[in-house]
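Possible regression after last week's pipeline update?

I re-ran a chain I had predicted before the update to compare outputs. Posting the input and the new output here so someone can diff against the archived version. Not blocking, just want to make sure nothing changed silently.
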Amino acid sequence: MKTKKIKDPLYDRDITLVYECEHEAFLQYVEKKHKHLKLDRYFTYAEHISVSSDDSWVRHYIWIKRNDFYIKDYGIIIHEVFHCVRDCFDEIGLGITESTNEAFAYYQEYIFEQILSELLRKQKTQ
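New output (post-update):
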């Protein structure tokens, strides 16, 4: 299992990429960090989880099983990034509206590029 904290200078959200592991290992990783959680088990290739606390912090996890870089893999990554960015926008009170959709698109692009940068870097070193 590999993890990478996504740098977020824009909205200061806590986002972690988790990859090179099975779904069960990812769920156990999140549950270990957040003892109060019991996550559902189902078959998937990727997932986004937002975890909040009573102290009002939110942590986001994006898990990607495969790193083959087929067209479908890019689609799966952007799908999960969309969920993450939507939750981040809700968290800071922006939501997705006519007046925020451009900021949303730029933020989604930024998070997607950070994830691809990490995955491609790992691929080049193998």
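Follow-up from reviewer: compared with the archived run. Helices lie at 23-33, 71-91, 101-124. Marking as no regression found.
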